[in-house]
TrEMBL record:
One of its GO terms (molecular function) is transferase activity. Residues 111-234 form the Aminoglycoside phosphotransferase domain. This is Phosphotransferase family enzyme. Keywords: Transferase. It comes from Dinghuibacter silviterrae. InterPro entries: Aminoglycoside_PTrfase (IPR002575), Kinase-like_dom_sf (IPR011009).
Amino acid sequence: MLPPQYLLDIVEDMVGKKSTRWTVPDCGLSAALRYSVQFEDNSRVFVKAATDDDTEEWLRTEHFVLSSLRESFIPHVIGWVDTPPVLISQDLSHAYWPASHGGTTWRAGDMELLLDGLKVLSSVPAPPGLQELQNRKTSIWSRIAGDPEALLRLKICPESWLEQSIDALIKAEVSLDVTGEQLVHGDVRSDNICFLDGQIVFVDWSHASRGYGRHDLATLLPTLHLEGGPAPYLVMPDGGGEAAMGCAGHIYRLSADRQMPDWLKNVFKRLIAIELQWAAQCLELDAPF
């Protein structure tokens, strides 16, 4: 697949070689242009180019992180053009990617490498200047308490359980402090990681920020459980605040996004059920279902 001519010219000029093949990766949901580019000498680079104002901002964030840190779990930068934003980085098409458009396949030991990699990532101080995670100013669970239909129509929990549990869910949500000085990827999921030479590499740092060290693990665990990983409570038994906040956020998005496709609605419903169960276990509430 040929790229826009401007992008072909930028990449060939910066790398100093003629390209022979441009391939769109078989995973990822980014709105940016993305290509694995092969050159005449069979070397490769990965190219990402902005397509609108949002992807411009995200790409600048990603370049800032990749160019500021030298960690084994981060792809290295080969080139950068600021206007229009184009990021050229290490090509990882030869790595093992658990996710593709055909589904997600975890090999034996992959999840353990992922969880170990997150421990390392969360121990790295964020580079100065990275945007800080902000605590939630208002409680979404309080809004749900006032109008619980968005949750109740999912048939995940009865109204009586919600009435008994709502105060604990609100308290857990508003008590969670997400601020901090640690590096936060912000979008860890199976299509944003790969494995190369026995090590994990995290890609797509568009939503990176500075915050508390457990953020990436907490947001990953429900999705990982959907893909065959451990129940979140087994990994983070003190994650009541994270579970309550994540669950409320998914309920709100599910009710607010009228354009959400049915397949994603089903994913959100399953995530809400996992997070509600996790919150109940951590907060010592009755099981919701």
